[in-house]
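Worked problem 6 (solution included).
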Amino acid sequence: MKPSLKAILFTVPFIGGYYLMRSLPVSPCDFLHEETYNADGAVDYCGPGDSLFVDLSLRKWPLTLDFRSPNELHPGQSGEFELDIRQFDGTPLAETDVALSHTRRIHLLAVDQTLSDYHHLHPEPDALHDGVWRFSLTPRNPGRYAVFLDFIPTRSPRRVLLTSSFEVAGQPSVGKPDRESLAFSSGKREFKLERLDQDAAGEGELKLLFRATDQEGKPLRLRPVMGAFAHMVAFDSTLKGFAHLHPEENVLPAEESDSHEGTLTFAFTPPKPGFYRLWAQVRIGREPETFIPFDLKTGS
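Solution. The predicted structure is:
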């Protein structure tokens, strides 16, 4: 048998198997740890997440992102952004191609180069063009913003992380975290992170206890945020990647009226010693979501 014919006969079953797998129905959480359902029966929470920091200068996903920002952006002015996302085979990433994860299809994280202006947004699909997603953002600072996309294709067992950036007009600052700060006050509220491994060298997985109280030390009542009672992200000083963290406690809101009082535990695995800016995201009462910054130093 000729080598070319043998190669064809060897390849055809794999191609057929690939398209067969793509034709099978897949539940968005088939490959994930946990799932809950909202009142409409749709999956709105998939698993507690991963403590690992992902360096996107080293890891790549076989999807393409065409990130389009306004021609000129200025601090304090809203800009309209457009994403064109293509799957590995070139087909557009439509709304039905993305699983609901923490009540949303795409999580977009944007942070400026000083790590002081952070946004957690959710692009919406264009009604007319598959693969096109849109969002608006009002940058607070001049300079470069890093953008990270976090989502789960319905026919894949893996999260997909994509990255891009945009520039805001003006002279950017150069300051970044240079000391540890695990407490933050806002009005009459106190937010704290506590290391549960105080004597550890900061290598491997860290356990962090998040606490939200009033001035008298009484726990604040946390309301649901994207299917959990808190979210947290960690950025390195070079903005090469991030970690998207969720509480380890097996306490999930069943409906929007649920609340949680008390501490929450997060796990974070830093890739190397250094400073990391952590942003906690919570919702208290009927107020809009609150973003709380912490600075964590790992290693000696």
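Discussion: Helices lie at 3-23.
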